[in-house]
Each structure stands twice: as structure tokens, then as C-alpha cells.
Amino acid sequence: MNRTEVSLDIGTVPSPIREYLVNAKIYDSSCSEDARTLLVEGEVRAYLKISKRGSLGREEKMTSFLSRYHVAPKAIAYESDVENDFLLTEAVSGEDGTARIHIDHPKKLAAAFGENLRMLHSLSTEGCPFQNRTAEMLNETSHGKDDMFEDLRKAAVDDVVIHGDYCLPNMIMDDFTFKAFIDLGNGGIGDRHYDIYWGLWTLGFNFKTSAYNDIFLDAYGRNDIDTDRLKLFTHFVEATD
């Protein structure tokens, strides 16, 4: 992940977060046009995400929920002003799945990627703040396409905690030792095949081949993969993305 040292007027940040920025070195590590992500290296090493008001509340809730299972960073503070949301989370050690130390070993990475997704999907759903994630996604994206997605509405099973954006940059490892999932704002209780689709997509995107798909699926566990439901989610994403 590229990081560039930047200056930040901490007076523009809500006061509960400002104390963590005093005398800290700050680096821009943003990878999205929708949010600015800053690495804060001071008394506490943390990431500060800044995005438009109302956009980071879900991420804070899902991060706090999954941090109880030690699979997500601790959410240190969440604040808003008239324009923006500010989410400060602890910085876990390690690098994301696209780091050279990981991506130079595609077979090992594909296996770890599948194993870690299976681990996420094996967590208890009790207390998850978003109970019907598949239905939410369908309602958000299927306006005018209800007939097209009726089969998915009937087939989907919301029974696991899903990441909602299961891509290699959103998994942190330390030399293949799992550390955390990040960017959890699209998560909740949903159908596992949504994450599985994105897992296959990101492997294809990063390696420009489907050669590692079987390793990923075997590591996840094929007995729990319904090929028909996976096809329905593939159709859903490709029709709405």
C-alpha cells in the first residue's frame, strides 16, 4: 500500500479524535475516491477514515461487532461534523492481500483467502447489527428489475456473517498469518455466495487468470458451496455493478 506523508489541520477534526493526532506523523494511504484514509503514527498507531456525513456508520458498527471476535480492528472513535464522518480504528500489523509478500505466492494466497473467508462465515451471527443484508442489497439495486432477481430472492439464505466486499485489499495478514478484515461497511448477515463471488472476482482481477479459483474454493470447502446460488449471485452482481 502506497503511503505519502501529509500535513493535516487537526482543527478540522472533531475534538474526541483530535487528541490522537497531536504530534503524530500522518500518511495518506487512500485507495478510494469515496473516502480519505490516513495512517496516524503517534502515541497510538491508527487509521483515520474521512468520508461524507452518514457514510461510515455501518462500517463502525460492523467493525465493532467483528472486533469482539478478534477478526477486525478496534474502533477507537466515531464522530461526525456537518459535512463528514470520521472513523478512527487501530492499525493492525501486517499488509493487505495485494502486498508483494503475499501476491508473489498466488497458490498460498488463494488458499489463505479461502480459509479466512470460511473462518468469517463460521462466526456466530448473534448480535450482528445488520440482519438481512441480502434483502437490503436487492432492495438497493433491483429497482425496476424485480422480475430479474426473483429467483435470487427465493434462493438466498441469510445465515452467515458476510464481509460484503471480500477483496484482497480488505484482508490483512502478516506473512500469511491472518490479522484482520477491514472496510466492513457492506457487511451483515447474508448469503455466503455473495462473498464467494467477490473472492473469485478479486483473484481473477489481481492475477488475470482463473487458475487459482479451485484452490480458493477447495480451501473454503466445496461442500458448503451451492453452484446454482453462486450463479445467481454472479448474475446479480454483473447486472447491477
Kindly list the characteristics that best describe this protein.
alpha+beta; six-stranded antiparallel sheet; three-stranded antiparallel sheet
Q: What report would you give on this structure?
A:
With 241 residues, this protein is α+β, with helices and mostly antiparallel strands. Helix content is 37%, strand content 22%. The protein has nine helices and eleven strands. The strands form three sheets. It has a six-stranded antiparallel beta sheet, with helices on one face. Strand 2 and strand 3 form a beta hairpin. Helix 7 (192-207) crosses helix 9. 37% of the residues are buried.
Mean pLDDT: 93
Class per helix and strand makeup: alpha+beta
Helix content: 25-40%
CA-based gyration radius: 18 Å
Low-confidence stretches: none
Order of H and E elements: EHEEEHEEEHHHHEEEEHHH
The description of the largest β-sheet is: 6 strands, antiparallel
Number of strands: 11
Number of helices: 9
Give the neighbour order of strands across the main sheet.
Answer: 1-2-3-4-6-5
